[in-house]
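Archive entry: two folds, one per protein. Generate the first.
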Amino acid sequence: MAVRFTPRGTGMSFSYIGIEFACLFRLLGSEVHLVHRGPRLLSAFDHECSEFLMEQMQVEGVHLHMNTTIERIEAETRQ
């Protein structure tokens, strides 16, 4: 079975399961952007663990956009 992955992906509002998927897609070669309203991911978890996770995700190439609110999503015109 062949599986195709999109080369880019953006996700919003992440629980720990969503973060696992974001890391998985990044390890499979996708460009991943996480957009989050707050200052850190997994705010219900220990602060040091959350900070460590965010640092490691950035080292692995995940783009984190913290303190960001999405106002609209527009389709990109392909030429």
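Generate the second and append.
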Amino acid sequence: MDEVDFLIVDDDPAICELMKRVAKSCGFSAAAATDAGTFKDLYINNDVKVIVVDLPCRGLMASRYSASLRRQGANPIS
């Protein structure tokens, strides 16, 4: 897989695929995670520039991960 610079985090695979297509059409190298383990792996092993997170994502505790990333200052999160 190419280096990922656009990461989508959502528990709905259909939403992930749609957003990946849109991101790729805009020139990003996009990947999606539907669970916490995949999210962490993709984030740690790539130079991610953009993260789109479904905050109420089941089982992911996305708001907690977002807060943690915000504290680390690695990526701007809004």
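Annotation attached to the second fold: The chain is about 40% helix and 15% strand. The first helix runs from residue 13 to 25.
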